[in-house]
Write a structure and sequence with these properties.
Layout (H helix, E strand, L loop, with lengths): L1 H8 L3 H7 L3 H7 L8 H13 L3 E6 L7 H21 L3 E5 L10 H17 L4 E3 L7 H14 L3 E6 L5 H11 L3 E4 L14 H19 L15 E4 L3 H13 L8 E5 L4 H9 L3 E8 L4 H10 L1 H12 L2
Bound molecules: dihydroflavine-adenine dinucleotide.
């Protein structure tokens, strides 16, 4: 109920203009967002790299309504890639197709993402196309497959809450597309997604095992922390992580054939612990002023965040 309300609010423009102006909301969003500027994102990236953690930088934005916004978004990603290269950062980037104009003009979107992927290739790094709600799943998979025919430094994300995901995983794996596995962060109807968390978790375990099987024969983690292996287990759920580790050990899949991924501001001690145990860990680091929908999804993921947020609104 609480999750649905926050995911509903995340899509409302009036709620966005109201809530994103509240100082307590801005203050709490800062836990999950590196800052407004690329310089701030690069500073966080340096700190995380210094702790032995790799990074994926996300310039916040989604569902743009004007072509100029999409082009500006792509320009900013190219700047971020220049900075990654210039600073020798152990980082790649994550991009949302609705930020690049998917809903406005698919050709414009493709050109924007192509430009980013080309720039990333020149910087020796990688582009992860985030997965959005199911209105965009088919179009995202089609565009990623098209890009992957030309570029090997692009991958995407699959969501364990969707019934369709095992089929998508097998199809992408056959094409060699790198996959980040997540549980799924959007509001989806029961015809498309498991409504019960226990079923999502069980599917996550099953799919992570399929991905790890594939990782065993895929490329290993690269030395510069930019290009990920074919399998990324992206979760903060210690049970999922323990199960993936046990499965890898049992099947002789070495730790350099997969990586764990987590979000900036969530379970940072767990990130450090896994890295100190020799696992590759990548932290998803968003920056920019368009933080509202991202922040609302983070609130929806954890009821404790919501209580903390609501009580902060009433504190002076
Ligand atoms: P779960 O929700 O069961 O949480 C397990 C534990 O982790 C919680 O008990 C809590 O301790 C901690 N936790 C989780 N979320 C928290 C939060 N927001 N604040 C504080 N603690 C929290 N989704 C999507 O649909 N498309 C995408 O492209 C991506 N991309 C992506 C990248 C990366 C690197 C990650 C880690 C996640 C995503 N996601 C995503 C989000 C994903 O779908 C999912 O909503 C969150 O990861 C939360 O699910 P968990 O797997 O962490 O498990």
């Amino acid at each position: 109920m609480m999750r649905s309300s926050f995911l509903f609010l995340s899509r409302l423009r009036w709620a966005q203009s109201l809530i994103s102006r509240l100082p307590p909301a801005r203050a709490m969003a800062a836990r999950f967002v590196a800052g407004d500027s690329l310089d701030q994102a690069m500073a966080v990236c340096r700190t995380l790299n210094g702790r032995g953690l790799n990074v994926s930088i996300d310039f916040l934005g989604e569902s743009v309504t004007r072509a100029e916004e999409a082009v500006r978004g792509a320009d900013e990603y190219c700047r971020a890639l220049e900075q990654i290269q210039a600073n020798g950062a152990r980082a790649n980037v994550s991009v949302k197709l609705t930020h690049m104009g998917l809903d406005l003009d698919p050709d414009l979107c493709l050109r924007n993402v192509q430009r980013i992927v080309e720039r990333a290739r020149a910087a020796g790094t990688f582009v992860r196309v985030d997965m959005e709600d199911t209105d965009h799943t088919d179009r995202t998979l089609a565009m990623v497959s098209e890009l992957h025919r030309e570029f090997d430094n692009v991958g995407t994300v699959l969501q364990a809450y969707l019934y369709r995901t095992e089929k998508d995983l097998m199809a992408l794996a056959a094409k060699g597309v790198p996959i980040r596995l997540v549980k799924g962060a959007y509001q989806e109807p029961p015809e498309k997604a498991y409504p019960r968390k226990a079923d999502v978790d069980a599917n996550y375990v099953r799919l992570a095992q399929r991905l790890l099987d594939r990782a065993a024969t895929g490329p290993a983690v690269d030395g510069n922390g930019r290009v990920p292996p074919s399998c990324a287990v992206a979760t903060h759920d210690e049970r999922m992580i323990a199960t993936a580790r046990a499965y890898a050990t049992e099947h002789g899949i070495s730790a350099d054939h997969f990586e764990f991924q987590m979000i900036y501001g969530v379970r940072s001690q767990l990130q450090d612990r896994l890295a100190s145990e020799g696992y590759a860990v990548r932290v998803y680091v968003p920056y920019g002023t368009h933080w509202y929908p991202y922040f609302m999804r983070r609130l929806a993921e954890r009821p404790a965040n919501v209580w903390f947020f609501v009580s902060s609104l009433f504190k002076r």
